[in-house]
Design brief:
Length: 336
């Protein structure tokens, strides 16, 4: 007899189209999406509605949404395997978010460190959306009953809130949502800034030298790595507590070449920072160059890109509608 097929587990993740993607996002999240998409029923979205929690120029937001979608594909997301879509094309996200907002405590949402950081960074625009941001993220995830959410370390707290909201809804009404788990890589979950290696590499850093974008030219990559801040030591040894800069470059070398940290230490015994940085720069160039050229080709064909996103959006919406209908019914909204 044929064994009964278990439905595949579901993963969902997203990134904000606030700028081009960085090697940090690749290492912390995108790399895992590409790897997991074949084992899981996968959904990946470009979260343009999250992006407007910080002021955006409409034309730029429109362009960057397509840029990010093309970059997902250039990095290896196959839209025939995964559902690739834009958040704003599935209105059920914000509809579910409202229901979840009415379950979320003001106090628990106030503890989110991303809100504290972003409201300090954008003190002139601390809007309510910036505050409720993690509840919309919970809606993104719960709408599809995701089992696993591949993200970088900085999103762990948002995932915890998502789990609490799922459990609360399930408890107050009846079992509805899957309680998701974060999927955070052991290595590369927090790539640091090249200029201030105690700080996360960020696509919105004002100092361009701090960040390697997946769209950077070979020359830009080489120059940024050459100028990366390290400590006053001389040897190439991994110490993430005390030698952030070198540890960060070793992590990037590990991810782009596949060499283990022990092998890297061995490779550079007796050599200095200059040789090491040159090797890291070349490894990143070799890794990014093909991603960049695939990206350019995908981005040049905007009609096909939009059609792919439309198809993904329709598929996502069919699924989202079913969950929202259940949620509305359980909440007590009359069906007319
Ligand atoms: P910004 O740096 O502009 O604040 P963000 O962290 O809000 O960006 P998103 O586009 O929302 O960026 O993040 C996408 C994913 O990439 C998330 O899963 C996040 O954890 C991960 N990520 C972002 N920066 C890094 C980094 N420096 N190292 C590892 N993972 C990262
Ligand atoms: N909050 C995330 C982006 C994000 C996300 C999601 C990640 C929005 N919705 C759903 C995973 C699943 C961030 O700022 N990096």
């Amino acid at each position: 007899m044929e064994p009964t097929q278990q439905p595949r587990k579901i993963i969902l993740s997203g990134m904000q189209p606030t700028n081009n993607l960085t090697i940090g996002q690749y290492c912390g999240a995108l790399r895992n999406w590409v790897e997991l998409q074949h084992q899981y029923d996968s959904l990946f979205c470009v979260v343009d509605q999250h992006a407007i929690t910080v002021r955006q120029e409409p034309a730029k937001l429109r362009k960057r949404t397509l840029d990010v979608a093309a970059m997902y594909m250039a990095a290896g997301i196959d839209p025939d395997v995964s559902t690739l879509f834009v958040q704003s094309s599935v209105p059920e996200h914000t509809q579910l978010a409202w229901v979840l907002e009415c379950l979320a405590g003001f106090g628990e949402v106030s503890r989110m460190t991303q809100f504290k950081d972003k409201s300090a960074q954008h003190a002139d625009n601390v809007n309510v959306g910036l505050f409720t941001y993690p509840v919309l993220m919970a809606a993104d995830i719960l709408l599809y009953n995701a089992d696993l959410v591949p993200v970088g370390e900085d999103q762990r707290q948002h995932l915890e809130l998502t789990r609490n909201l799922a459990e609360r809804f399930n408890f107050h009404y009846s079992p509805t949502f899957t309680v998701p788990e974060p999927y955070i890589p052991k290595v590369g979950a927090k790539i640091m800034s090249l200029q201030e290696p105690e700080k996360k590499m960020s696509k919105s850093d004002a100092n361009e030298k701090a960040t390697i974008f997946l769209t950077d030219s070979d020359a830009e990559i080489r120059s940024k790595i050459k100028r990366a801040v390290t400590d006053s030591g001389t040897d190439i040894r991994f110490d993430a507590e005390r030698r952030h800069g070198v540890a960060n470059l070793m992590t990037l070398y590990h991810i782009t070449t596949g060499a283990s940290i022990a092998e890297i230490e061995q490779e550079f015994v007796g050599l200095g920072y200059a040789e090491f940085k040159e090797a890291v720069g070349e490894a990143i160039v070799a890794f990014i160059a093909p991603v960049r050229s695939r990206y350019e080709a995908l981005r040049a064909d905007e009609d096909t890109l939009k059609a792919t996103l439309r198809r993904g959006g329709e598929h996502a919406r069919d699924r989202a509608r079913k969950t929202l209908r259940k949620v509305y019914k359980k909440t007590g909204f009359v069906e007319l």
